[in-house]
Design a protein that fits this description.
Chain B: Keywords: Cytoplasm, Endoplasmic reticulum, Isopeptide bond, Phosphoprotein, Ribonucleoprotein, Ribosomal protein, Ubl conjugation. Chain B: Component of the large ribosomal subunit. The ribosome is a large ribonucleoprotein complex responsible for the synthesis of proteins in the cell. Chain B: Component of the large ribosomal subunit. May bind IPO9 with low affinity. Chain B: Its main location: cytoplasm. The complex is a heterodimer of chains A (164) and B (293). By secondary structure, chain A is of the alpha+beta class. Chain A folds into 2 domains: 92 residues, SH3 type barrels (Roll); 31 residues. Helix content of chain A is 53%, strand content 20%. Chain A has 5 helices and 5 strands, in the order βββββααααα. A 5-stranded antiparallel β-sheet of chain A has the order 4-3-2-1-5. The longest helix of chain A has 32 residues. Chain A is elongated and about 70 Å long. With 293 residues, chain B is of the alpha+beta class. Chain B has a domain of 95 residues: SH3 type barrels (Roll). Helix content of chain B is 28%, strand content 14%. Chain B is elongated and about 95 Å long. Classes of the chains: A alpha+beta (164), B alpha+beta (293). At the A-B interface, α4 of A face β9 and α10 of B.
Chain lengths: 164, 293
């Protein structure tokens, strides 16, 4: 039922508080509510932190309990947590949310145009397929094959808009 | 400080060049002290703090004679004020004059004061300020411009017949209104004035540094014209007033002159033309206080 546990070396994401948005590693457990936490590669000093503001990630590091910062840093860099984190969907969603909030009026216009174009392409292909299927009566094969070129076109334009 | 004091003392410093410490460079010092005297005359002298530290209330550290030496009063000798005799010897301007007076048994002349006392004294020390004090006419008001609005900014008009349209800001006019243009070919907004308060400034900017705006585009140019010549014929007044606004040739030529320059800049930015063509609107889930413009 539970897959992520609080353990020594568990990398956690801080959801609120002064260090909101940073990653830390759990170094030791103080009591039921707090942990000794350290984030040498993410700019968080070694400190006590309540569990409530931490959200566990999938990453676990290997170091003994109460290891000093140097050891935590070594383990962190060995596992290359920063790069792994940036590749997770979680981090990407956060980034997308931030970008959306920063969008200016002009950016919103560009996104609207890109979305419109993309939807047009999709609709066009769908209509084509519907026509074909109604004409010939075939359903299974063609919709699966046709989706791949569509997706490539869509993503190119949406990426353009997001980069702006 | 000792050097300053030597320069500061005008006459005594010069009178006694043989004084101990600064007397090392006598001729040089006198020259510089003369220069500094000229400067010091214009400067306001700074008063030194008390040179007599307080031991307890009313008791100073140093005696009178010690203080005399500390304050260098031996250098500071002031002459006595003018005595009355010397004053009398000065020429004073005439205060009265005797004038001949006509008439019988009048005693031929009167002694009249030349400078008379004022006949009225105001009862307030500081004259009362006029009610209109500090109230400036509109033409002298301070004009402010939001920092987010700079030449070339794309603005969103919120009121008027062009509400919702995105428009390029050119400059602020003398009355504080903003001179704005569509450009006309893009969104049918001509060279027009807009009010700063009824406008959203976006962060999108067009480079207008090279664009020259003709100088005759002032408030007077844009002001609405009203015919007012009622010749006491009430029936005809409503006919003669301009009902339909006609675009003058000058407006058209000015529009072209400005727009041609701006369009060149707009074309350089991709999708900007389409952006200016579109209108701004809110929909479900869009909250202006959360939007970044």
């Amino acid at each position: 039922v539970f897959k992520r546990f609080v353990e020594i070396g568990r990398v956690a994401f801080i959801s609120f508080g002064p260090h909101a948005g940073k990653l830390v590693a759990i170094v030791d457990v103080i009591d039921q509510n707090r942990a000794l936490v350290d984030g040498p590669c993410s700019g968080v000093r070694r400190q006590a932190m309540p569990f409530k503001c931490m959200q566990l990630t999938d990453f676990v590091l290997k170091f003994p309990h109460s290891a000093r910062q140097k050891c935590v840093r070594l383990a962190w860099e060995k596992e290359n947590i920063n790069a792994k984190w940036a590749a997770t969907r979680w981090a990407k969603k956060i980034e997308a949310r931030e970008k959306k909030a920063k969008m200016t009026d002009f950016d919103r216009y560009k996104v609207m145009k890109a979305k419109k174009m993309r939807n047009r392409i999709i609709k066009h292909e769908m209509k084509k397929l519907q026509k074909m299927s109604s004409k010939k009566g075939k359903k299974l094969e063609k919709p699966e094959k046709a989706q791949k070129p569509e997706k490539a076109q869509k993503s190119a334009k949406v990426q353009k808009a997001q980069k702006a | 400080m000792a050097g300053e004091k030597a320069a500061g003392e005008k006459k005594p410093g010069e009178k006694k060049p043989g004084k101990k410490k600064p007397s090392e460079k006598k001729p040089a010092e006198q020259k510089t002290s003369q220069k500094e005297v000229g400067e010091k005359k214009k400067k306001v002298k700074k008063h030194h703090a008390s040179r007599n530290p307080v031991l307890a209330r009313g008791i100073g550290r140093y005696s009178r004679s010690a203080m005399y030496a500390r304050k260098a009063l031996y250098k500071r000798k002031y002459t006595a004020p003018e005595t009355k005799i010397e004053k009398k010897k000065k020429e004073k301007p005439r205060a009265t004059i005797t004038k001949p007076v006509g008439g019988d048994k009048n005693g031929g002349s009167r002694v009249v004061k030349i400078r008379k006392m004022p006949r009225y004294y105001p009862t307030e020390d500081v004259p009362r300020k006029l009610l209109s004090h500090g109230k400036k006419p509109f033409c002298q008001h301070k004009r402010r411009l939001r920092a987010s609005i700079t030449p070339g900014t794309v603005l969103i008009l919120l009121t008027g017949r062009h509400r919702g349209k995105r428009v390029v800001f050119l400059k602020q006019l003398a009355t504080g209104l903003l001179l704005v243009t569509g450009p006309l070919v893009i969104n049918r907004v001509p060279l027009r004035r807009a009010h700063q308060k009824f406008v959203i400034a976006t962060s999108t900017k067009v480079d207008i540094s090279g664009v020259k705006i003709p100088k005759h585009l002032t408030d007077a140019y844009f002001k609405k014209k009203r015919l007012r010549k009622p010749k006491h014929q009430e029936g005809e007044i409503f006919d003669t007033e301009k009902e339909k606004y006609e675009i003058t040739e000058q407006r058209k030529s000015d529009q072209k002159a400005v727009d041609s320059q701006i369009l060149a800049q707009i074309k350089k930015v991709p999708q900007l033309r389409g952006y200016l063509r579109s209108t701004f609107c809110l929909s479900n889930g869009v909250y202006p206080h959360k939007l970044v413009f």
